[in-house]
Amino acid sequence: xxxxxxxxxxxxxxxxxxxxxxxxxxxxxxxxxxxxxxxxxxxxxxxxxxxxxxxxxxxxxxxxxxxxxxxxxxxxxxxxxxxxxxxxxxxxxxxxxxxxxxxxxxxxxxxxxxxxxxxxxxxxxxxxxxxxxxxxxxxxxxxxxxxxxxxxxxxxxxxxxxxxxxxxxxxxxxxxxxxxxxxxxxxxxxxxxxxxxxxxxxxxxxxxxxxxxxxxxxxxxxxxxxxxxxxxxxxxxxxxxxxxxxxxxxxxxxxxxxxxxxxxxxxxxxxxxxxxxxxxxxxxxxxxxxxxxxxxxxxxxxxxxxxxxxxxxxxxxxxxxxxxxxxxxxxxxxxxxxxxxxxxxxxxxxxxxxxxxxxxxxxxxxxxxxxxxxxxxxxxxxxxxxxxxxxxxxxxxxxxxxxxxxxxxxxxxxxxxxxxxxxxxxxxxxxxxxxxxxxxxxxx
Length: 444
Ligand code: HEM
Hints:
By secondary structure, the protein is mainly α. The chain is built from 15 helices and no strands. The chain binds protoporphyrin IX containing FE.
């Protein structure tokens, strides 16, 4: 009898038939899938309205006034927080909870952890957005929002920290797990700094907006210190199989994490040129370690997704490299607001959003109850529009904001609407997948 079956019997306090054990296991799998769907749908809502809609609104204002300071810092920061924590952060928490085998072994009551985490996280991110946009009661609500996010993460951290992957060798964790642990520590550091900053702003009492210099460094922590290592960890776990890659250079990937950490710390210290060069070295090492740009060993597994999937994954990594090259450029010239913006956008949309759209549409249908992606064509459309919109935005942001070409201001709204269409198509494709009937239930 399997360890899982024995544990279920111990919880029931009697021996069970094979049929009963199957039913209990199926019911638990179903509640985990429902939980995952809740997290992913919440992430999609944050992405669409507080995130993308506000981002497009900001960009329309900037391009109509031909001035980056025509929107309030609070609105820009509210948009960024909704995208990074509300969208991608919620996705990561949901996938993290879903992937812990421990939850499959526990009784239904033990699912309190993911539900409580969801309630705290969602309230924290929502409150943060409201304080940024409306500033209502912000002296009290800003620190509360940061505390709620921190509390949610601690519940997540305690739940996953006891988890040892079943396939780990004796005494050693798989390297991708180490990378994900580093990313989780990056998220913890980000939330602690966020909490400290919220307390500081509340005590000072002048404004809920982060000062520009601090915000720029904090952005490096939340992107390179938290999101990028998560993407590397999940890339190491899934991409060799999905793309048929050669075995990854595991030690080099850990080396890339070390270099990346130095880059983040250097940025926090304010040495931006050195930080950008170090982050560039880190992403180059990780791309090499994952062997993404070498010929594949096996054909890519594209069943159920669009055949272009491997191209977009590689494109995402090229965007991350471009982001660091733009960062080096921005750090050595004066008044480089547009180049910084282009660098940040190449990373957030070119790398992070492209990875979420590609890998998300590859894994989430199966995680949500062995469903099939609603449409592989919509997947392609979403990725193509995102790539086109990102190229347009990165290019026109440098040309317009830096004063190289005035006509580029009129391209910015086109890029915003193209990207908004891309992420909306992605959301529609996933939501239609979640309401579809899994093939295993079609004949019942
Ligand atoms: C439809 C797509 C998007 C549009 C139109 C958009 C628009 C904007 C605009 C106008 C800014 C202000 C600074 C600037 O002019 O560059 C900005 C900043 C930012 N965006 Fe976006 N964005 C989009 C997607 C995303 C995504 C997908 C992410 C993250 C995954 C993201 C994260 C950020 C962050 C972190 C900032 C900086 C916030 C700060 O300064 O604290 N954006 N975005």
